[in-house]
Structure formats: structure tokens, C-alpha cells
């Protein structure tokens, strides 16, 4: 196990070109599982290759156990990588694929046999050792690729979108296998994916990337519940967070956000007025499961009546779509709720869970009743180093 730290890492492919990686700052403790997540082209695989030594960085430092490895060759970094394409040797048996790296290190044959047996038992591929990669399914090939990395017992494991070539059912199964494996081995792991479900279920820490910049770094719960900006809020979550443009109204020294529907109007209190907020374009963010069916006035939460436009039963829940402020809004309701199209529902919002974002910068302003001005939000973001 080892700690991994990236200090102000930059990567550029030439002068005058946009940097692929920009001032990357990350630190994970020994044994932690870090997820790098983001859309295609955001720089996550490039960052993975830089950690492995397959690409050089143009600025900053990469440290393992506080030792700078930035200038080391890949073979000297004691890091194992599992590629998206598996990269197995087609003419070798599964046994020889797993043992290949150990033979290169000139380990005794007895030790190699013991290590191959250990890894095969761990991954439940003992019955496949005599086969060639072409005789294996996608999931079996992925296990062999993982076994080859595991046999080295490195300080750090790197996984570059290892499940993207598998079908949906097998992807779920392998995701569970990877998590169980990490729980058993407790080895420091960095895992690249564009799948936000993998990010939420696998990682101890998550770094959300866009255009070579880390937008937010934290636990999956922090990323989900307290997204730093509109991009993070939209990328993490399925179904995604609802974004509703708001009209702000000042009354009695407070700002009120107005929600309109065909069935009526809802006023949401934004707390005490802060300078610079009035007149700004503001977007309300609320996750589908945070929109509730009204349970009467006892809760004291704001409510609004809205007409059902579409329903999508999924089994564990029912997705109901309504229109608020001329925007389609998804509500995730209980599976036994089956409203008809055209039916009117009374919906409630919990102010403690509703977020507000500045429409121009995308930065989060806060929660209802705890809203800060865009200028103050920018100062806070700058102070946190994002």
C-alpha cells in the first residue's frame, strides 16, 4: 500500500496548444480507492498514463509515499495497470499471461507457480489457466488482465475504463468483483471511468474532471449532495439533477424564488437578501428523489400543484415528469405511485436539499435559506483552490 499525491501536475503536447491537464492537485491515503470520472476528452486517461509513466508531465510532481517518481521509467514505479483493451498475449495461456511479469523479474519458478495459484483462486479463474485468451468471454479476459496486475503485488493499481467493453449485466457483476477485491487487498487504487454509477459505487474518493481541470474532489456523498457547480451536479446522478431557471422577487427585505406551473405558483424563501444577488439569473437544482408528494400542511414545506405529462415505471420507483417554469422536471416517486397523464399532483420541496446556482458562472450559491452572493461564492471557491 502507498500514498499517492499529485502536485500542480500539468500536461501539454506543444507550445501554443491548450493544456490537456491543468494544475492537477490530488492526494489519496494508503489503501484508498480513487475514481477519476468525467466525459470523453476531459483528460482522465491522460492523467492515468502520466501516473503510470506512459506519458511525461510538463509541470508539477507525482509522489508515491512522498517520493517524487515523475522522472522514473514505468518499470521502476512499482505500479500495475489494467487497460481497457485487456492487452493479453493471444498466443499465451492464461497461466503464462499471469506469470509473464514475474518471469521478466526473474522470480523462482516455485514462487511464480504459488503466485499464479493465489491470483487464480482470488479471481476464481483456476479452471481457465490452460486456455488461450481467444477461448475466453469478455468478463473472463478482464479477470485475467486483473490477475496479471495482481500477481505483481505493486504499490498502486491503475484501472483505465476496464469495464467499458462489457455488457450491462456483466459490468455490474465485475464492478462488485472489483470492490470485493479491493476490500480484501486494501491496495491503493486509481480507477478511470466515464460511468458515474461506477464512480458512486466504487470510490472512497472521486475527482470529477472537465477540460483537464478537476471540478471537485471529495467523497461520493459530498459530490452527490454538495456539487460545486452545474457541471458536477449534472454529471453525477441518474436520473440527473433537475435545473429550473428562476424568477427572483424581493419582498420585506428577502428574496423569493417563484415557481410557476399550469396548476399554480410556489414561493421559495431564499433567506436574507445579500448584495449582488437580486437581478441575477439563478438556477434551482433539485434531485428527482428530493421532490415529494405533499403530505398536508403539517410539514410546512412549500408546495406546488403540477400536471403530470409523462410517467415511467422502472420497477423500484416511478419517474413522473411535470413542467415548472416552462422546464421539464423529473420526480422520482414510490413504485406504488401510478398517476395518469393529465392528473394533477401536489409536490413539495425540502428547502434544506434544494440548491441554487449562478446561471452565468455555474457556481453553486448555496441552499435555500443559506444563499450567498455570486461574488462571495467566487471568493469561497478561490479560497478552496478550485
From TrEMBL:
GO MF annotations for this entry? ABC-type transporter activity; ATP binding; ATP hydrolysis activity
Q: Which UniProt keywords apply?
A: ATP-binding, Nucleotide-binding, Transport
Q: Which InterPro entries match?
A: AAA+_ATPase, ABC_transporter-like_ATP-bd, ABC_transporter-like_CS, ABC_transpr_MalK-like, ABC_transpr_MalK/UgpC-like, Mo/tungstate-bd_C_term_dom, NA-bd_OB-fold, OB_MalK-like
Report the superkingdom from the record.
Bacteria
Stretches of the chain forming a coiled coil according to its record: none
Give the PROSITE patterns listed for this entry: ABC_TRANSPORTER_1, ABC_TRANSPORTER_2
> One Pfam annotation, family name?
TOBE
One cellular component term from this protein's GO annotations in UniProt: ATP-binding cassette (ABC) transporter complex, substrate-binding subunit-containing
Task: Tell me yes or no: is Cytoplasm among this UniProt entry's keywords.
Answer: no
Would I find Transport among this entry's keywords? yes
Which GO annotations describe the biological process of this protein?
carbohydrate transport
Q: Where is the ABC transporter domain?
A: 4-236
Stored NCBIfam families: PRK11650.1
| Protein name stated in the entry | sn-glycerol-3-phosphate ABC transporter ATP-binding protein UgpC
Tell me what organism the protein belongs to: Pseudomonas cavernicola
Amino acid at each position: 500500500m502507498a500514498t499517492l499525491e499529485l502536485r500542480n501536475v500539468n500536461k501539454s503536447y506543444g507550445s501554443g496548444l491548450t493544456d490537456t491537464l491543468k494544475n492537477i492537485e490530488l492526494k489519496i491515503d494508503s489503501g484508498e480507492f480513487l475514481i477519476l470520472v468525467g466525459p470523453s476528452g476531459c483528460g482522465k486517461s491522460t492523467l492515468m498514463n502520466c501516473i503510470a509513466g506512459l506519458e511525461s508531465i510538463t509541470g508539477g510532481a507525482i509522489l508515491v509515499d512522498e517520493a517524487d517518481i515523475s522522472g522514473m521509467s514505468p518499470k521502476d514505479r512499482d505500479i500495475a495497470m489494467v487497460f481497457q483493451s485487456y492487452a493479453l498475449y493471444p498466443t499465451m495461456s492464461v497461466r503464462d499471461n499471469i506469470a509473464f511479469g514475474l518471469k521478466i523479474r526473474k522470480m523462482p519458478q516455485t514462487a511464480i507457480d504459488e503466485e499464479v495459484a493465489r491470483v487464480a483462486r482470488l479471481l476464481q479463474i483456476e479452471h481457465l489457466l490452460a486456455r488461450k485468451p481467444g477461448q475466453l468471454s469478455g468478463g473472463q479476459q478482464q479477470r485475467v488482465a486483473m490477475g496479471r496486475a495482481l500477481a505483481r503485488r505493486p504499490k498502486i493499481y491503475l484501472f483505465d475504463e476496464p469495464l467499458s467493453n462489457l455488457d450491462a449485466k456483466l459490468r455490474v457483476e465485475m464492478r462488485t468483483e472489483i470492490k470485493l477485491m479491493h476490500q480484501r487487498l486494501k491496495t491503493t487504487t486509481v480507477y478511470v471511468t466515464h460511468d458515474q454509477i461506477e464512480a458512486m459505487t466504487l470510490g472512497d474518493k472521486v475527482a470529477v474532471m472537465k477540460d483537464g481541470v478537476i471540478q471537485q474532489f471529495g467523497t461520493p456523498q459530498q459530490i452527490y449532495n454538495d456539487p460545486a457547480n452545474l457541471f458536477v451536479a449534472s454529471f453525477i446522478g441518474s436520473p440527473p439533477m433537475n435545473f429550473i431557471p428562476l424568477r427572483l422577487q424581493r419582498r420585506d427585505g428577502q428574496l423569493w424564488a417563484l415557481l410557476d406551473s399550469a396548476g399554480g405558483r410556489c414561493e421559495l424563501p431564499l433567506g436574507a437578501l445579500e448584495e449582488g444577488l437580486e437581478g441575477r439569473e439563478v438556477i434551482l437544482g433539485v434531485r428527482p428523489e428530493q421532490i415529494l408528494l405533499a403530505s398536508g400542511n403539517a410539514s410546512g414545506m412549500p408546495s406546488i400543484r403540477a400536471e403530470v405529462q409523462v410517467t415511467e415505471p422502472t420497477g423500484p420507483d416511478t419517474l413522473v415528469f411535470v413542467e415548472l417554469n416552462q422546464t421539464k422536471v423529473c420526480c422520482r416517486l414510490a413504485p406504488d405511485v401510478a398517476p395518469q397523464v393529465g392528473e394533477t399532483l401536489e409536490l413539495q420541496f425540502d428547502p434544506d436539499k434544494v440548491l441554487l446556482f449562478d446561471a452565468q458562472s455555474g457556481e453553486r450559491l448555496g441552499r435555500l435559506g443559506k444563499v450567498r452572493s455570486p461574488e462571495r461564492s467566487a471568493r469561497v471557491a478561490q479560497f478552496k483552490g478550485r
